[in-house]
Amino acid sequence: MAEAYGKLTGEPGVLFVTRGPGATNGAIGVHTGLQDSTPMVVFIGQVPNEFAEREAFQEIDYRRMYGQMAKWVGQIDRVERIPEYVNRAFHTAVAGRPGPVVLALPEDTLFSQARSPMRQSTTSCGPRLLPRRWPSCTSCSRRAAAVRAARRRRLGSRNLHPAAALDRGARLGRRTSFRCQDLFDNRSASYIGDVGIGINPKLAERVKDADVLLVIGARLGEMTTSGYTLIEAPVPKQTLIHVHAGAEELGRVLPSCARHQLGDGAIRRGA
Predict the structure, then answer these.
(1) Concatenated DSSP letters for 245-271?
(2) What letter does residue 97 receive in the DSSP assignment?
(3) Contact call for residues 80 and 109 (beta carbons, < 8 A)
(4) Are the C-beta atoms of 37 and 97 separated by less than 8 Å?
(5) How far apart are CA 43 and CA 46, in angstroms?
């Protein structure tokens, strides 16, 4: 439910689970949140600090367990640092490419008390999205020209608003990425299907044969690319314009020296 809340609202879904079994059950939603770029903050019970690393009952090192499933994993060993850790967790969950953050709560920390410096502060410490860096007008003009010049162009997205605006203005064939089928009206004349498990073979061929692919907000992972067959790695046949909130995602699967970093966007020209 926390993962669904984060996906629907764009605000971090919050999850509290017990140590041991609760942590392992919660890992399913955390892993889904990471792959779907869903903001989440997960609080997990932990053994008391005095029992740490003694293989106490249901003790798990959550930094190791969740290391590859979360944007950040922390443990609050001192009660006076709770505001600092929680503030950082919510900021991290929504910054750049959103995702899950995990905080472990030792049992003795839960029952301790401390004076919070934030209680006396008049400044709001809630999570804030950092300003986006946008491509220059020249860069946008070059990309718009590439789209207009293409005979077979496709628009793929997991971000509704900018993609919908482009769709209205450029008459692009529109598809949604894996687990994002609901982000666009499936009854629209420009909707040509979703790219994921069990893709329509005709749609797969249209993606492969496209001159230009404009990908907004979607990761070019295994599911979206049908095992990297629709968009070949490391050199795609299509001209690829990729827009994504996380700079680390641009060029991750399709690296190229011909690619230009443009804040939230990058372009890769095929052979």
Answers:
(1) S-TTTTTSSS--TT-EEETTEEEE---
(2) S
(3) no
(4) yes
(5) 10
Is 41:14 a contact under the CB 8 Å cutoff? yes
Strand partners, 216: 157, 243
Alpha-carbon distance 151 to 67, whole Å? Answer: 44
Query: Rounded to whole angstroms, how far apart are CA atoms 40 and 19?
Result: 18
Burial of 160 (0-12, 13-18, 19+ CB in 10 A): middle
Q: Which residues of the chain have pLDDT under 50?
A: 122-124, 153-155, 157, 159-165, 167, 256-264, 269-271
179 vs 196: CA distance, rounded Å:
8
pLDDT in tens, 26-57: 999 999 999 999 999 999 999 888 787 787 78
Question: What's the burial of 126, exposed, middle or buried (CB within 10 Å: 0-12/13-18/19+)?
Answer: exposed
Contacts of 88 (CB under 8 A, 6+ apart): 72, 74
**CA 244/CA 265 separation, integer angstroms:** 6
Tens-place pLDDT, residues 151-170: 554 445 454 444 444 545 55
The tokens describing 254, both together, are 């399709």
Give dist(CA 135, CA 150) in Å, integer: 21
pTM of the model: 0.65
Spatial distance between the Cα atoms of 91 and 269, rounded to a whole number of angstroms: 35
- Token duo for residue 227: 């095992």
How many other C-beta atoms lie within 10 A of the C-beta of residue 81?
Answer: 14
In the structure encoding, which two tokens stand for residue 42, read together? 């997960």
